[in-house]
Q: What sequence folds into this?
DNA sequence: GTCTATATTCCGATAGAC
DNA sequence: GTCTATCGGAATATAGAC
């Protein structure tokens, strides 16, 4: 795989997660890379291709993380904390997550990008509901709500607290995420 | 106040909450109203003016709701449920809330719009932390976490579950919000 | 006071040079 | 295979007509 192509995807992802999909342009990427905007079109004929590829890479990254956690034999608490660490890192880098940055723009996305974003969100929610169920069965977690709904609530907390801390930067993200896990303790 | 001006603001708000700030244009509004796009510039010289005015109106609306609830003597549960009803309505109308739609675009907004969005978010979070504190003192709510953090977590859940249900529309919003309140019951 | 004709800039995208 | 010159159109915004 071409190095330029990789750089474009990395920059594109950063731009989506900082400025938003509809606010960034091929010019933003090309000027940073010192090439013309049309050069980007060689690697990604349309913005749709770029957006879709970026989401696909993120799905791959998430699935690799799951495999990694399984091979290491992580329990449900360790899995949840590993996932939350992604959000702490995003916060430190002043970026939103992919779901939280593309989600609000959903109605303006092309069909292929929509499809991948749906797939990514489903994979995350399914995994989260899964570890919530298993963790509760093993008495690691305690909660009364339906695991599927609880998964949406927890994921929503993570997604939007990145958005809120961007608006009000004095909010302490670490304490916020502790509030989320505190809630699950038996 | 001019009727055209009001229609522009209403349409503008709908567009922000469905397509996002950077995806909608003056053309979208003018074509709907059967006028030229430049006519919008008479009422709102720049997009910044329109965006800022829309946020200000939303702050006013929220503050009027607070006054209304106080004059009716709503307790903390009633206040929280009234607030959540706004989100159920938004979900039904397939719209995000203002904070959830402008938040991800924060870095691309003009200074005055940023300022108003910060103010709106602060007002909501302050009110929410307030009723959580008072409600817990009165034994209406039960939770162990710090009220300020809990306010961010609850608000985040509401904001982002609108975004997630847009991506995956089979998610049941009513059950999600019940998970949020369930969690506060003593 | 209200709106239109028009300017300007920037966007995503195509055709073709190297 | 990789990139540049350039297009057509859409975006925000100004100047001025009614």
A:
């Amino acid at each position: 795989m071409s190095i330029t192509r990789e750089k474009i995807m990395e920059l594109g992802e950063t731009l989506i997660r900082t400025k938003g999909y509809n606010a960034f342009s091929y010019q933003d990427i090309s000027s940073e890379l010192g090439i013309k905007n049309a050069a980007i079109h060689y690697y990604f004929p349309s913005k749709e291709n770029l957006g879709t590829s970026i989401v696909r890479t993120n799905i791959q990254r998430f699935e690799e993380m799951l495999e990694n956690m399984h091979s290491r034999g992580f329990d449900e608490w360790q899995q949840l904390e590993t996932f939350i660490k992604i959000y702490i890192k995003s916060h430190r880098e002043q970026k939103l997550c992919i779901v939280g940055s593309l989600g609000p723009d959903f109605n303006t996305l092309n069909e292929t990008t929509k499809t991948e974003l749906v797939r990514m969100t489903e994979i995350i929610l399914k995994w989260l509901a899964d570890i919530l169920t298993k963790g509760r069965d093993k008495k690691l977690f305690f909660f009364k709500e339906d695991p599927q709904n609880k998964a949406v609530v927890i994921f929503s907390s993570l997604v939007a607290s990145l958005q809120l801390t961007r608006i009000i930067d004095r909010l302490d993200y670490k304490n916020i995420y502790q509030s989320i896990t505190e809630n699950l303790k038996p």
Summary: The mean pLDDT of chain B is 97. The CA atoms of residues 31 and 83 of chain B lie 34 Å apart.
